[in-house]
Amino acid sequence: MATSLLSISTKSSEALDATVKGLQLIDKSLQTQIRRATSKMGTPEWQAEVAEHLAGNDLQSAVLGSSNKVQASNQNVMLSSGASTRRMRGGATPADLAHSEEFGSNRNRVTAYRRRSRKGRTAEVLRHTTHQLMPPSRSGWTVFQAARVIIPRIAQLWVQTTMRTIYEAVEGKVS
Questions:
Q1: Please, are residues 50 and 88 in contact by the beta-carbon 8 Å criterion?
Q2: Could you tell me whether strands 77-80 and 69-72 are parallel, antiparallel, or unpaired per DSSP bridges?
Q3: Which of the residues 18, 94, 167, 171 could staple to 84 if both were Cys, CB 3.0 to 4.6 A apart?
Q4: Spatial contact of 54 and 82, defined as CB atoms under 8 Å apart
Q5: How far is CA 84 from the centre of its chain?
Q6: Beta strand pairing status for 77-80 and 111-116?
């Protein structure tokens, strides 16, 4: 899904800007604790939001619904879906199919190939290989719709986790 990204600038919010600057100044163990807590709390919310936007077909659920992760760094929080390179039952990987599942495809496209019968004769076969996909959509069907909803919540979670962890460290509640 590297074709298009949704993002918010940390410069657009004083809280986000302060979070990024604050993470650069604190102890590395606190940075690690904040990244882990953000990922741990954000992943279930991200998974639930993507699941809510799934169209309901099995292929889309396998490709986009099962490999959702939240990865936090000191500069940003990244939401990912469909990035797994582990082969599925048919041999394809979610990473191979994610773009088509998210943005759809031309459902009337016909793929032609030649096959040989048991008696040795060859014949050309026409198949609608993308018929099970959603129609094309520039704004995405599942992940991008879910991201538009969840990005503000994840940003808020990141800021709150950072502030709470720093506060607890100052109060002596965190080692």
A1: no
A2: antiparallel
A3: 94
A4: no
A5: 10
A6: unpaired
Nearest to 158 by CA among 26, 30, 38: 38
Name the helix (H) or strand (E) containing 15.
Answer: helix 14-25
Predicted confidence (pLDDT) per residue in 23-47, tens digit: 999 999 999 999 999 999 999 999 9
pTM: 0.83
Distance CA 138, CA 156 (A): 28
Q: Which of 4, 37, 49, 72 is nearest to 153 (CA)?
A: 49
Domain segments of the chain as ranges: 12-98+138-171
Burial of 147 per CB tally in 10 Å (0-12, 13-18, 19+) = buried
pLDDT at 7 over 50: yes
pLDDT bracket for residue 8 (50, 70, 90): confident
At 48 the three-state DSSP class reads helix
Of 88, 103, 71, 76, the C-alpha closest to 2 is 103
| Structure confidence at residue 41 (pLDDT) | 96
